[in-house]
Design a protein that fits this description.
heterotrimer; A alpha/beta (256); B mainly alpha (292); C mainly alpha (321); A: 256 residues; alpha/beta; six-stranded mixed β-sheet; four-stranded antiparallel β-sheet; 10 helices; 10 strands; 23% strand; B: mainly alpha; ABC transporter involved in vitamin B12 uptake, BtuC; two-stranded antiparallel ribbon; 2 strands; 2% strand
Amino acid sequence: MSLLSVRGLDKRFGGVHAVRDLSFDVHPQTIKALIGPNGAGKSTVFNLLTGFERPDAGSATFEGIDLTGRPPHETVRMGLARTFQESRLFDTMTVEENVLVGMHLRLSASFGLAAIRSPRVRREEREAREEAAHVMRLVGIDRYRDTRASDLPHGVRRLVELARALATRPRLLMLDEPAAGLDGRETADLGEVLLRVRDAGTAILVVEHDMGLVMGISDEVVVVDQGRKIAEGPPLIIQKDPAVLEAYLGEVSDGA
Amino acid sequence: MSTADLLQFVASGLQNGAIYALMALGFTLVFASTGVINFAQGEFFMLGGMLVAAEVAAGVPLGLAVAGAVAATAAVGALIERFALRPARASGALTLIIITIGCSMLLKSAARHLFGPDERAVPAFSEGEPVAVAGAMVQRQVLWVVGLTLLAAVALTVLYRWTKLGLAMRACSVSHDAARIVGIDTARVVMASFALAGALGALAGAVVAPVTQTAYDVGARMGLKGFAAAVLGGLGDPVGAIVGGVVLGLLESGAVAFVSGTYKDAVALVVLLLVLVLRPQGIVGRHLGEKL
Amino acid sequence: MTSVQVVAAVAVLAVPFLGADRYLLKVLTFVGVNTLIVLGLALLFGYAGQVSLGHAAFFGIGAYTSAYLSSALGLPWLVAVAAAVGLTACAGWAVAVPGLRLKGHYLAMATLGFNEIMSVAFVEARRFTGGNDGLGGVPFPSIGPYELDTPASLYLLVWGVALVALVGAANIVKSRPGRAMRALHCTEPGASACGIDVSSVKVRAFTLSAALAGLAGSLYAHTVGFISPTTFGLDLSILLVAAVVLGGRESLAGPVVAMAALTLLQYLGALVPGLSRQAAEAVQDWVPDIVGLTVVGVLIARSRGFRLRGRRGVPERGGQG
């Protein structure tokens, strides 16, 4: 059974048909890449699945439960976590605090309990910090623990966003161009982390332009062009698909 | 209630509505060109009334006093833009509005230092008994208020549609970047819109002062009512501002006529809250950029 | 709590035993009352980024509720306090639910409008508020036979409550709800992507903040014994926002110190020994000018400072900004 199942998703913005009749599945413990030329509607798919936009038509179910129309925070509760193409870190907070915010739903302290700092709140905070340390180690950012997010180099910011999303303990992790702006070495490290995350039991849906990373880690690839799915399958097959080649080559010649 | 009574309420509604319309125009001009809600707009109103009162007391002829008050307040508006807001242009809208709050504290306090804490009276623009309009006795000053508001609205329309500055202001309301690309000095336009807002506020304050009296602390509440009118008409839309002002004025006097005068001052504020929450784009609901 | 904080708390509570005179104690009690209000606003505005220009109204609702219940209806003090806090919290909630859908400057104007409506109500609802003449004869705080009727005991009561609130607020900001407020202040999409129900956190912060203002109002009414509408007008709301702006984002100590300074400024004449009456009045006369200039100056300076920092950051991001 598939973890995430997208059926006939459709979204228009004014005259732009951003997503057209899109269907695909993500299976447990797999990495699926969503690729396509710029403006193909990939980020819109993310926004539709995580409640930031409402689809005009179609549905998306996660573990059999309908996702459409739910506000973002509820999709997190259901087990989806996402990052953004443009970083949405909490700039005034330290890296550790950013990761702790990711654990929001699993902590219980209300305003009242937090104010009196009850023993339960204390214990909860201590345990949360331990877990945050674990997540930061996994992603390789533990040495930045007390650095303010606004002071971080770009590559580390991407990783903090990843760590923050992981801290929600998702069953599906959705990453929007996680390797953008990373150098070759950082990208390779990121690939390692993602494989480890998958092997620990989390499925991943990733939008990415770095084809080395995509082909290296994905179990399956979906290619979209102008909002429409043009191919789906294992990376090796996708690389030889004529429709895919045309979409990408078309982009290259357009850009030239 | 007789027809004459009804007309009486309409007349007083139109008078207040005209004042709110002028204030709303002030808010709207600044908002359209900067995206900032100018908290000091109410103090422009206060300055208009207080300056006229002070000038008249010093022996300046009334007409000249009004013109002087309007010009001086326009200058104050331009100065606020140049020395308080422009240096902080890089910050968000909320910071800028708090700066205008600081400015309004300063203006209010300055007025108290200069003119004292007491209420001031201003003579009516023309002497004489109330005139009969369609069976209702209307004070002459009401005609001045409505007439001068219409004049201001016509002048603004001419400025907006047929002058270079007006074109530049419209361009800035759509996009500052685009305006700059076609060679518009956006800083000058913003300054001009603050000066105009000052002039409009002062005109409102000067022309209504003979009816209501004036004091250094009348700005805040009038500012809120003018803002309510601007929001009612759709912030950023000059036509909406005038419609919003008149509607608000009529609503207020309607509430006095049919409900009670006790909470007259709360009417505009309740309208403000309702519109903000239910229909933030206003009742007229067009936006400047799309319309022109 | 750090040792510095403990020492500061002890020092604050020791003031009445150090021979401070009655007038000074009264002024410092006002400082304590204002500390409570500004604490709530610091949480709401400084941490969660939601402005309120209506906090003087919540302060007033608390004060009038408490005063009316205890003087007109003769209810015990503690009941009056509880009712005042509860009613103010409800009022805060009722303003927050529709109001917090509004962004930045619209929220500012809406809360300001709310404050003006309440100002009208405080004057016009004569049956409950006494109108412009105010409401007098509010009994001192008492539990059973014990009554707090000396300046020193009132000072201790107000500051005791203020310090407890300060500790509570400090606890909040360093745990889950505090992080949620700071997060949504930075980026609402980012916060909701972490599972934070942004509007719910905002409403809670607003309600708590209003409740603190209501508590302050109740303490104020029973401390001074007489309340009138001018105390709860826009001027105080603006002063509170100014204190939070001057005190800085994500700070409790900053706004508290700023508000204390702004409060003391108004009584400066009477507090500095040897200052002549005229000089004292002159200072009081110029308080709004000082506050206005400071707010404008600090904001301009800060926005230029931020811009310099932003510029340094640009090359790193590939200069897309």
